[in-house]
């Protein structure tokens, strides 16, 4: 196997690393504490191609591939998980979904401003009563009598970037009698009448990544803003989530790497009983276990990204690779950050160091874009063919 990267992939990694170290890391603690949306940092990321890495240049993006995206995502997440969450939604949920399923007009109109960093995109699938069971949604989109627009009513919850998004990819029920096959996808312009944002959620982690509930009250969507045919929404949502899971896997890898590197440095510097704690076998065992899991998670994530790039050429599905990477990387992030706090002892529990933020941020990687339990179902069903 060839583990080398192209010049373009290394270039976007270098750009992401520079922005992460120079702009994001120094401000991460402030944004975590305040919960403010890091608008200036996100704008800078967009100007440098990080908000539309796989988007062709004609639509305002960097025109790279999934492997390049993973390399960049790891660097951003290593500096701050919240920034990488915003980046992930823009890249793999919003832009990827429209690139794969949108019309040419939709790509030019709705992808370009998001990929270039001029605006923020979001993805609205989850509802208050439907999380993992996405097909149980109640949000309705009813076609008007003259066939020119849909009228949308309902609520969506846990919308990442919802408080600041200009455009949102929405999934709503157009024919409830068909269940999952009655779901359709749309583009929402949040500046139109009938769209309302709820309060920003007070989250455990990724606090600078603004999240809220949104509501539609007789909101009108022009029929030309439907994505794909009616009834194809659930398929679109699931295919988009495959790409999204690779992004979250990369995020988890970056977060775990940051916690691991901090632990190795601390083990060399911190002394107890007259010697560095890194000389104690208990600490060495933790470092070894963290290293093994981190390397495995990194390789699984790169494999999933490679499979996605191959899929663009062959049409083959990469859902198993994406779920394996997301499951293992997210659980690795939880394991590594837990061990990192333990190695740092009392200092790991203190807000004076970023370890406790890493620990809080890691948990969400096991939940969004499909919980660990859902990933295990996807993997097992794909392997056995049983439902």
From TrEMBL:
Its EC number is 1.3.8.11, 3.13.1.4. It holds the Pfam family Acyl-CoA_dh_M. Gene3D superfamilies: Acyl-CoA dehydrogenase/oxidase, N-terminal domain, Butyryl-CoA Dehydrogenase, subunit A, domain 2, Butyryl-CoA Dehydrogenase, subunit A, domain 3. Residues 231-382 form the Acyl-CoA dehydrogenase/oxidase C-terminal domain. Residues 122-218 form the Acyl-CoA oxidase/dehydrogenase middle domain. Its cofactor is FAD. One of its GO terms (molecular function) is flavin adenine dinucleotide binding. Residues 6-118 form the Acyl-CoA dehydrogenase/oxidase N-terminal domain. Keywords: FAD, Flavoprotein, Oxidoreductase. It catalyses: 3-sulfinopropanoyl-CoA + H2O = propanoyl-CoA + sulfite + H(+). Belongs to the acyl-CoA dehydrogenase family. This is 3-sulfinopropanoyl-CoA desulfinase. It comes from Vulcaniibacterium thermophilum.
């Amino acid at each position: 196997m060839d583990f080398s990267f192209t010049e373009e992939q290394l270039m976007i990694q270098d750009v992401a690393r520079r922005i992460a170290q120079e702009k994001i890391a120094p401000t991460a603690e402030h944004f975590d504490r305040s919960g403010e949306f890091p608008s200036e940092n996100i704008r800078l990321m967009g100007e440098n191609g990080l908000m539309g890495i796989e988007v062709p240049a004609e639509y305002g993006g960097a025109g790279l591939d999934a492997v390049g995206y993973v390399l960049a995502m790891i660097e951003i997440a290593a500096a701050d998980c919240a920034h990488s969450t915003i980046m992930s939604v823009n890249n793999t949920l919003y832009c990827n979904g429209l690139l794969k399923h949108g019309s040419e007009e939709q790509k030019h109109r709705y992808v370009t401003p998001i990929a270039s960093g001029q605006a923020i995109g979001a993805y609205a699938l989850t509802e208050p009563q439907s999380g993992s069971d996405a097909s149980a949604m109640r949000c309705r989109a009813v076609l008007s009598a003259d066939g020119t627009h849909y009228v949308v009513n309902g609520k969506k919850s846990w919308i990442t970037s919802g408080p600041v998004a200009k455009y949102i990819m929405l999934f709503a029920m157009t024919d409830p009698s068909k269940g999952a096959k009655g779901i359709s996808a749309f583009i929402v312009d949040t500046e139109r009448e009938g769209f309302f944002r709820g309060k920003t959620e007070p989250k455990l982690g990724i606090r600078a990544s603004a999240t809220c509930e949104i509501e539609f009250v007789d909101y009108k969507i022009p029929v030309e803003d439907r994505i794909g045919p009616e009834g194809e929404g659930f398929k679109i949502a699931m295919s988009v989530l495959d790409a999204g899971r690779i992004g979250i896997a990369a995020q988890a890898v970056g977060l775990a790497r940051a916690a691991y590197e901090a632990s190795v440095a601390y083990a060399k510097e911190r002394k107890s009983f007259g010697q560095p704690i890194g000389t104690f076998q208990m600490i060495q065992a933790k470092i070894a276990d963290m290293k093994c899991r981190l390397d495995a998670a990194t390789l699984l994530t790169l494999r999933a990204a490679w499979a996605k790039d191959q899929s663009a050429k062959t049409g083959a599905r990469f859902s198993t690779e994406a779920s394996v990477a997301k499951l293992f990387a997210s659980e690795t992030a939880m394991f590594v950050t837990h061990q990192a706090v333990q190695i740092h002892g009392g200092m790991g529990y203190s807000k004076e160091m970023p370890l406790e933020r890493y620990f809080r941020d890691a948990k969400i990687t096991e939940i969004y874009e499909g919980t660990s339990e859902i990933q295990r179902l996807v993997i097992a069903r794909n392997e056995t063919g049983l439902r």
